[in-house]
Design goal:
Chain lengths: 112, 111
Amino acid sequence: QQQVKQSPQSLIVQKGGIPIINCAYENTAFDYFPWYQQFPGKGPALLIAIRPDVSEKKEGRFTISFNKSAKQFSLHIMDSQPGDSATYFCAASLDSSYKLIFGSGTRLLVRP
Amino acid sequence: ETGVTQSPTHLIKTRGQQVTLRCSSQSGHNTVSWYQQALGQGPQFIFQYYREEENGRGNFPPRFSGLQFPNYSSELNVNALELDDSALYLCASSRERGELFFGEGSRLTVL
């Protein structure tokens, strides 16, 4: 019940495309759903986060869509750029600072 | 840059040895969390420290222990190292109930 399942494992898109990464969770008590971006040799960096009282949140080119009834959320990257090539992790927790449960990650490659 | 600094960045140990990893939190943050990230996996929560007390623990054995100091910096200690302990160890700091900011990690290799 503590798992967060992430798909796909890897994703290749052309520059300007809209990669979509999906996550599913089981614990309905989760209250905070962030997405992190990680470059090789670096720590994860918070991109955007959402709470279950809204269905969508946009920050720049990044959008989270949240479906509470299906217990799923997804990350969309608009107008993707080669600099967006990284590993993306979804996560879920009961609180923004406590015990994040991470998905297994999606390696995104954006071709020029 | 998140303002969270970790040391050392890389280290190699042999099975059975002990290791101490250090973390300086971002200014104004009073909570430190430690995560283990195995190669190709997502980070896994080890434990969190708040006001120098352990404030929750993940599914890690007691040979993983930690400390938080009055200046909110922290240490992660791992005793009796095993081969499976080879991973990137990430420290993250936050304000109480705030967002996590991760350091760049300490890469531990156990031979």
